[in-house]
From TrEMBL:
The modification 4-aspartylphosphate is found at D53. This is CheY-like chemotaxis protein. Transmembrane segments: none annotated. InterPro entries: Bact_response_regulator, CheY-like_superfamily, Sig_transdc_resp-reg_receiver. Gene3D superfamilies: 3.40.50.2300. It comes from the Bacteria.
Amino acid sequence: MARILLAEDEAVLRMLVVDTLEDEGHEVIEASDGEEALEKIKTDDEFDLLILDYMMPVYTGLEIIQQIKGMSCYEKTKILMLSAKNQTTDRERVIEAGATEFMSKPFSPLELVKKVEDILHGHK
């Protein structure tokens, strides 16, 4: 079981991701925008994985990565960026910023589970 922070501003997608990952036995903490996500990250250093939406209100997923880069507790934390922006340059920007992996929206719950398991078990 992993402890995962999900930062996603689309309520329906957030609910789908939470339900999917909790069904797999993971604990999922939710944030509805970048500011809430950053607050949770700064007050809790126990996340195994951050799942961040690329485009969110207040702070984008990229801005969150930039702000936590210097925090020692997050040097080894895995990050999965979700985005409807799926151009090669967007993917490259996300990985260069420090994300472990990139996943394009829309995606199926099965794809998400596989990607999360691959990341958590070091296959990505």
